[in-house]
Specification:
By secondary structure, the protein is mainly alpha-helical. It has one domain. About 75% of the residues lie in helices and about 0% in strands. The chain contains ten helices and no strands. The N terminus is likely disordered.
């Protein structure tokens, strides 16, 4: 089943990135907040970085859990298309709700500073677009017949770039590599809990 192997590769790399494996490197210095504030033409809300980062983790934690569950059941799904369909529906529905909720919470919180306004807007859009895309994917997967000989091929065709797991990896990396938000990532209870669960499930310490 071609889809099965492609899914394993993409989701495994995402899961590792989200829980912080290999995030010890430091990105280039982010723009100075004072300079950014002086050049912006709009008022930017300044929410608590820990709460803001926690909202991000709360949005992707259910997705991480779903990814790990999918990976754990791949041997079974290879022999049972119906089980795969059920698992994917659970993943899509749970992740869609978490991402939609995260979008709304981040919108209410606002950016934690002028230097984070661009990333904040990217995350709001990412969660909003991903939530909608996953709702659509759920409908597509639910409409498939697991007894159809072409089920695997049709399943592979569902979704699109909007729900590419690598996008989740990119957003997580931006937070973890930014010195200011890397610290908040380490303090937010939602992120600490997500990391513990993720690393334990992946065999980490």
């Amino acid at each position: 089943m071609k889809y099965r192997f492609a899914l394993i590769g993409a989701l495994t790399s995402t899961a590792l990135a989200v829980v912080g494996c290999g995030s010890g490197t430091t990105a280039a210095t982010s723009p100075n907040s004072t300079t950014a504030a002086a050049t912006t033409t709009t008022t930017v809300a300044t929410s608590d970085p820990v709460q803001w980062t926690g909202a991000f983790c709360a949005g992707i934690s259910p997705t991480l859990t779903g990814i790990l569950e999918l990976l754990g059941g791949m041997a079974e799904y290879a022999e049972d298309p119906k089980a795969m369909q059920t698992a994917l529906l659970k993943y899509a529905d749970t992740s869609a709700k978490a991402m939609t909720d995260a979008k709304e919470k981040l919108e209410k919180l606002g950016a934690p500073g002028a230097d984070a306004k661009e990333l904040h807007d990217e995350l709001v859009k990412f969660f909003g677009d991903s939530g909608k895309a996953l709702v659509d994917v759920s409908k597509q997967v639910a409409a498939l017949d697991p007894n159809d000989p072409e089920f695997a091929t049709k399943l592979e065709a569902t979704g699109g770039d909007e729900i590419d797991p690598k996008k989740l990896q990119e957003q997580s990396k931006k937070l973890q590599e930014n010195p200011k938000y890397k610290d908040a990532f380490a303090k937010a209870p939602e992120c600490v809990e997500m990391q513990k669960k993720g690393l334990a499930a992946l065999g980490g310490s």
